[in-house]
Specification:
The protein is globular, with a radius of gyration of 15 Å. Strand 3 (70-75) and strand 4 (78-86) form a beta hairpin. By secondary structure, the chain is an alpha+beta fold. The strands form two sheets. It has a five-stranded antiparallel beta sheet. The protein has a three-stranded antiparallel beta sheet with strand order 6-8-7, with helices on one face. It contains four helices and eight strands; from the N terminus they run E-E-H-H-E-E-E-H-E-H-E-E. It has helices spanning 28-35, 49-66, 109-123, 138-146; strands at residues 12-14, 19-21, 70-75, 78-86, 95-100, 130-134, 150-154, 161-165.
């Protein structure tokens, strides 16, 4: 019988207002609901139910196989988005990404959650990760800057995607 690897990042992080935890099966419907909306357009969406289900399985599988992945962001026990170190096989290196569900933007939750992930990666000795950001996504570029990231280059395979490199800590 195969024993899964121990997580190489903590399964839970806590910030001042949020809990970040490894995704669980009960996160499936909120996840699928998010990816059905136009809000998901900057992150591979919108998707039909089958495609969103497959992406959720990838989220769970990365934790199971690699020992890390995206966290579900909880505010007062409610799932409001995702952030984490995401590294599917087709990515060159781990990415800090963030997604918030409708009604939770503009309140600093993505900055707070992604900062916790960046700080955790630094404490664990990871190389500064990247964020892959759609060239049209002004809000994510502004958030990357708040996190101390800088524009590095256009992705060599995805012409509509910029690579932003995170510093260990904001300057």
């Amino acid at each position: 019988m195969h024993t899964p690897p121990a997580p190489i990042i903590p399964e839970h992080l806590t910030t001042r207002r949020l809990v970040l935890r490894r995704p669980e099966v009960q996160d499936l419907e909120p996840y699928i609901g998010f990816f059905a909306t136009d809000r998901s357009a900057m992150s591979m969406g919108p998707m039909n139910r089958a495609d969103a289900f497959r992406e959720f399985c990838l989220e769970l599988g990365l934790w199971q196989i690699k020992g890390f992945g995206n966290y579900t962001i909880l505010r007062n026990g409610e799932p409001i988005g995702l952030t984490g170190l995401w590294h599917p096989e087709y990515f060159d290196e781990p990415e800090i990404g963030w997604l918030l569900r409708e009604g939770h933007e503009g309140k600093g939750y993505a900055t707070e959650a992604a900062s916790a992930v960046r700080d955790m990666a630094e404490r664990l000795g990871w190389e500064p990760p990247v964020s892959y950001i759609d060239v049209k996504n002004r809000r994510s570029k502004a958030l990357a800057k708040r996190l101390g990231a800088h524009f590095e280059r256009i992705h060599p395979k995805w012409a509509d995607t910029e690579i932003w490199r995170h510093r260990s800590r904001p300057a």
